[in-house]
Amino acid sequence: MRRRQFIAGLGSAATWPMVARAQQPAVPVIGFLHPRSRADITARLADFQNGLRETGFVEGQNATIEYRFAEGETARLPALAADLVRQGVKVIVAAQGAAPDAAKLATTTIPIVFNTAGDPVSGGLVASLNRPGGSRHQQRWVGSKAV
């Protein structure tokens, strides 16, 4: 009888790490798309990361950020946005310029967060401010706070 208990205990001990890993929640992956280079937007990138931290998301701990920079070549944005979609990101932050348009063309199911100096309705990014349509959402940013 002791032999059976030992083998059963050994089997359950071997499966415990797999069960523990299966119960951990998935870490959200955030896609970040920008028309310029990382070096060009260092301060804004720090504000973005601080804003995430203020809402409880810390890169490398409980969130992953996939960065894509067009390095000033806006023609690269559609391919970079499509790559984020293939990576399976949960949301795309399309910072400025042509990035929101590229993200909109790449997906209709992944939420897109963007900022724009113009009118997103007349620019064709959203159907209306009250009901943006699809999964796209618009926020205005003042400093590092969403309004």
Topology:
Blueprint: H1 2-23, E1 29-34, H2 42-54, E2 64-69, H3 77-87, E3 91-94, H4 99-106, E4 112-114, E5 136-138, E6 141-142, E7 145-146
Parallel strand pairs: 1-2, 1-3, 3-4, 4-5
Antiparallel strand pairs: 6-7
Helix pairs in contact: 3-4
Number of domains: 1
The CATH topology is given as Rossmann fold
Give the strand line-up of the largest sheet.
Answer: 2-1-3-4-5
Rg, rounded, reads 21 Å
Superfamily at the CATH H level?
Response regulator
Count of runs of 4 or more consecutive helical residues: 4
**How many strands, what sense, and barrel or not for the largest sheet?**
5 strands, parallel
Secondary structural class: alpha/beta
The coarse overall form would be: globular
Poorly predicted regions are 135-147
Distance between the termini: 67 Å
Percentage of β-strand residues: 15-25%
Mean pLDDT: 79
The helix/strand order is: HEHEHEHEEEE
Named at the architecture level, the CATH assignment is: 3-Layer(aba) Sandwich
Q: How much helix, percentage-wise, in residues?
A: 25-40%
What can you see in these coordinates?
The protein has 147 residues and is an alpha/beta fold. The protein has one domain (26-146): Rossmann fold. 37% of the residues lie in helices and 18% in strands. The chain is built from four helices and seven strands; from the N terminus they run αβαβαβαββββ. It has helices at residues 2-23, 42-54, 77-87, 99-106, and strands spanning 29-34, 64-69, 91-94, 112-114, 136-138, 141-142, 145-146. Strands 2-1-3-4-5 form a five-stranded parallel beta sheet, covered by helices on one side. A two-stranded antiparallel ribbon has the order 6-7. Strand 3 (91-94), helix 4 and strand 4 form a beta-alpha-beta unit. Helix 3 (77-87) crosses helix 4.
